[in-house]
Amino acid sequence: MIRKAVLPVAGFGTRCLPASKAIPKEMITIVDKPVIQYVVREAVEAGIKEIVLVTHSSKGAIENHFDKHFELESSLEAKGKTELLEELRSIIPDDVNIISIRQAEPLGLGHAILCARPVIGDNEPFAVLLPDVLVNDHGLDKNDLAGMVDAFDSSGQSQIMVENVPRDMVHKYGIVGLDDPDLKPGQSAAISSMVEKPSVDEAPSTLAVIGRYLLPGSIFPLLAETPPGAGNEIQLTDAIDTLREREGVAAYRMRGETYDCGHQLGYLEAILAFGKQHPKFGNDFQNLLARYAGQE
Which residue did the predictor score with more confidence, 292 or 215? Predict the structure, then answer.
C-alpha cells in the first residue's frame, strides 16, 4: 500500500505571472480553495497519510495553510461561526501528516523529487503529484489516483497516469507507447516507449503523461545518477525511462478529466468545472453562466 506522496512546490510559477509574483502559484484559488488543497485532498482520498512538500523559502504560505491557526479558530468559535470553523479544521485530516523539505536550487523536477529521499527512503513506493494539474474525478466511485494504487498493488509495477489528447496536440506532452494500444480508461498496461514532445508523425500514441506517478524507492539511486538533460536540469522522465528498461513501468489511463492550472485558460476551465460542482455555490454559479452566455 502506498502511504506517502511527494508534491514539488518549489517552482516560481512563471507561467502564472503576475498573479504568482507575491503569492505561491499553488495558493491561487479555485472557487474557495487554493489549488494545492485540491491536490492534497486527491492524495488523501487515495489513502495517502504523509504528504511531503518539496518547497522553497518563498513558499511559507503553503505550509501555513496546512498548519493549525489557533487564534483564528478561537475567534470563529467565540463568534459561533461553526461552519467556517469546521471547514478550517477539515483542510487536513488528523491522521495525515504534512512534511516540508527545501529544494535549495532549481535544478529540475527530478532533483526536486530527489530532495524527498531522506523522508521516503529507498525501499518504499510513493506517489508524485504535480500541483499544476488538477484531476476532476467528480461522479466516479473512486478517484484515479486510487485506481493507480490498485494497479500498483496488483502488478507491483510503477504506474504513470496518462490521458488521451488530440493528435495535433501531442507535441506539447510526453507521450507513451504501449504494449496494449487499445488501453481503456481505468486500465493499466506496460509502457514500451516514452517520447518527450514528439512531432505528430513520431508520436507512438496519443496518450500523454499528465503529472501523476507511483514510483518505487529504487528511483532515487537512478535520479542521483541521472545527468542533467533538457534545460540543463535533472529530468524525472529520464530516470523513469531507465527504470522502465530495468524493471518495467506501466501506464494507467485515467477516467476523470484534468486541468492545467499553470496556464490561464486551464485555470479558468478548472473554475468553471469545480464551480458547477460546488455543493454550496454550484446552482447559483450555473445560473450566472447561463446569464452571461446569453450576452454578446
Answer: 215
